[in-house]
């Protein structure tokens, strides 16, 4: 996102209020003009979204929204929230979908693992909202989600084929093997000098010692 922020010209982002209290990042985000939404207070959230509508027209500013409402690393696009679409319809401004391919092949948020990886970012054609009303929002949401989902699947497949990775693979397993190889490189010279032998065969759990050979189980 930050890699091409400079081409966005005037743009702000809707973010959850909790990010405001994340130290220097929260302060910098507030000073940069981010719009914070209190997701636990529907009335305040609606007020903030209404203010967004006025700002977009008066200041000719772009608004970056994460339509799922929160980030999920499940290798799919979830159902969208209505807030951003209400803003688009009220302001009668077009929606420009931006789609990231899956990062499931290198990120495991539950295991707190982030490896190097590849992502394709695709900007689709703008979808007009002129003439639409609040009654058209459900159909508009589904139309936007469909084109984004098709692109998400296609670009994810492209990354998997080009770099021989799988978005459905367990990132933690490959990372643990990487850590094992690093330990192997560090420990093996010391064991060799002392007459011990390191066996890096993987089986199923905790390290065991068999006849002078150390074997790691997982």
UniProtKB/TrEMBL annotation:
Keywords: Acyltransferase, Membrane, Transferase, Transmembrane, Transmembrane helix. The keyword Transmembrane applies. SMART domains: PlsC. Residues 1-103 form the Phospholipid/glycerol acyltransferase domain. It is an enzyme of class 2 (transferase). SUPFAM superfamilies: Glycerol-3-phosphate (1)-acyltransferase. Residues 198-218 are annotated as: Disordered. The chain crosses the membrane at residues 20-37. Pathway: Phospholipid metabolism; CDP-diacylglycerol biosynthesis; CDP-diacylglycerol from sn-glycerol 3-phosphate: step 2/3. Its EC number is 2.3.1.51. This is 1-acylglycerol-3-phosphate O-acyltransferase.
